Amino acid sequence: MSFLSVFKKFPRTFWIVNVMELFERWAYYGMFVVLSVYLTNPISEGGLGFTNSQRGIMQAIVTGIIYLLPVLGGAIADKFGFRRVLLAASVCLTSGYYFMGQFNSYAMVFASFLIVAVGASIFKPVISATISKTTNKNNDTIGFGIFYMIVNIGGFIGPFVASRLRDLNWNYVFVMSSLVILVNFILLIFYKEPGRKENKSENSLGETILQIFRNMGIALSDKKFTLFIIIMIGFWTTYWQIFFTLPVYITQWINTTDVYNSSSVLASAIGTKVDGVGLIRPEQIINIAAFTIIFFQVLVSTLVMKIRPVTSIIFGGLIIALGMGQFAFQNMGLYIILGVVIIAFGEMTSSPRVQEYIGRIAPVDKVALYMGVSYLPMAGGNIIGGFLSGFLYDSMSDKYIYLKQELLSRGYATMETLQNADGAILFKEAMIFLNMNENQLNQLLYSNYQPGNIWLVFAAIGAGTAVLLFLYDRLLLSKSTK
């Protein structure tokens, strides 16, 4: 059987949902990878001027919902039909993205983001279920491989386009995400429900959802499995900082002109100029991780497939911790890129093997139940990671908080005067007061306050998680489950 003949065996609906997934990931990551910067940038620079603590609370709650609700979304889809749920999800996503860019108050942006969360959480399970129902044992490996590739392609295109649009106007990013989802309304015209029969079950939706929670309770009654779930929260708490914390950190502290000047190819492909100075936006740097995964995932998976899943997860977690830890010691763009690439290889080594490991530690008759709660560590990592990102950044790394402390210590103004000052405007005033240019003032604050120490905290969480997982595997699991 030829390679092309395998592709031809996938039905039309398979390709339609893959394209829908591409646009959904395009919209989500296009928005999400710039969101931290948009929420916290000073108002004078087009941002909303929220504190990082406010940002962290919003991201923790909303992204936690995105990973907690899909199991309920699947039950809703089974009850009311895949097409209807996809339509409802698309309505939520389109409207949520649009209003996120229209409002500037914390409560309304939060509410709009929650609408996006609802849409994303009911979209996810329907797409995955459709992929499953439109493949078979002869082509499911290739089918899900195509799906994973599509996810990464969408996750790569979105931030690339969003970076260009936000240089024009921040609102264009959210309009882009909204318009991209509109394409899915057209695709739904051609979507055919894959072998679904009318739901004639006597159970109500409430009873179905209650049964889901009962099943979760059965799985979590296994104390060893629950401990594994808890340990893996640390893994995702560390990993998600590449989206929560790194964009703000690069924006405030990293001079990326070295990257821009290092290569004319990079400069033309992902660079931009601000006031005549060439730089690389943080979302373009972070997007290098998606680019790396697209090209190296198959190779890395091949290299680690003979290694035990838990060993691969532990090793990948240590690689991620290494990548984040080195952020603490350099404030040059090239070193940040190096860290991002290291983290990408850590993700490729570990993330795809988590579910494989769960399948091995689960009792044979409960594999499906255990898989059903495999999303919990990601949800927990988003919730804890979001809260930590916001509160730690305010206390350890925020440039404008440190700027105010520095000016206060030098008698520039009183705290009452500085407290509500726009950070970007205050920074320019400080340059004049201290007779420094932007790079000199930035370096003064960086040297005096060591904002990179926040990455040592996250690296320690990642490394600690790897150590705990090693001890868990060696001390608690029998050889038969490894």
Structural commentary:
The protein is 77% helix and 2% strand. By secondary structure, the chain is mainly α. The protein folds into three domains: 10-193, Growth Hormone, Chain: A (Up-down Bundle); 222-398 and 451-482, Growth Hormone, Chain: A (Up-down Bundle), CATH 1.20.1250; 400-449, no CATH class. α2 packs antiparallel against α6 (106-133) and α21 crosses α24.
List the helices and strands and how they pair.
Blueprint: H1 3-8, H2 12-40, H3 52-68, H4 70-80, H5 82-102, H6 106-133, H7 140-166, H8 170-188, H9 205-220, H10 223-239, H11 241-244, H12 246-253, H13 257-262, H14 264-270, E1 271-274, E2 277-280, H15 282-304, H16 309-325, H17 333-350, H18 354-361, H19 367-372, H20 376-396, H21 399-409, H22 415-419, H23 423-434, H24 438-449, H25 453-475
Antiparallel strand pairs: 1-2
